[in-house]
Amino acid sequence: MPATHGADEDIDWPAVEATWRTRFPADFVAFMGRFGAGSINGEASILLPLPKPGLQWDPAEMAEETANARQLWEAEGGRAAFGVDPEAIIAWGVTGGSDILCWLTTDPDPDRWPVLVVGRHTADAFAVYPYGMAEFLYRLCSDEFDVSPVSITFWDGGHLSFVHWRKAQRRWQEGRNPETGEPDPYAGDFAD
C-alpha cells in the first residue's frame, strides 16, 4: 500500500507514553511515521494516540474508541470469557462495519500484544489474533483469513489506498469524496 496520501504525524511519543502509561508497539510507531492516522480504502481507520484538532472535525482518536471497546467488553462478557480486565484493552483502529481493532496489553512487551477485534456483526463479539497491528492489517488486506475477522468485506482485490485524515478533510471541504477525491455533491455541506 503506497503512502502517497500518508504523512508523518510527528507524534510526541513521550507524551503518548505518559498519557497511556505504556510504550506502544514498534509497528504502530513505524506506521504513524510513514502513514499517520487515516483510512485504508475507506474501510478501516487508524486512530491517533492523542487528540489533535482538525480542519473541520477531529479525526478518530484512541481514547474514545478504547472507552467504547472497554464498555462492550464489560457489557457483552469479554472479561468473563477471556479473564482479562478491560483496562488491558487499547483501541488502535475502527472499521466501516463498526468493529473496533484493539490490542490486548497483558504482555509487558508491547511488540507481543495480540490484536483483539471487538466485532459488531462478526461470528464472535470478541476474537484475538496472534499478530501485531501491521501483520493483522497485512493479512486483512491480503485476504488471508478463511473467515473475515471484521464485519465488512474489507478488500475486494482491487487497489489498496491510504488517505491521511488531513487529506480527507481537505477533499471534503473542496466538495470531493474524502476517500476517492471524486466530485461528491454531499461533500462540504457541513463546512464552516
From TrEMBL:
Q: Where are the annotated segments for Disordered? A: 172-192
Query: Superkingdom, according to UniProt?
Result: Bacteria
- Per its UniProt record, what SUPFAM superfamilies does this chain match? SMI1/KNR4-like
Annotated signal peptide: none
Q: Where is the Knr4/Smi1-like domain?
A: 13-128
* Annotated protein name in UniProt: Knr4/Smi1-like domain-containing protein
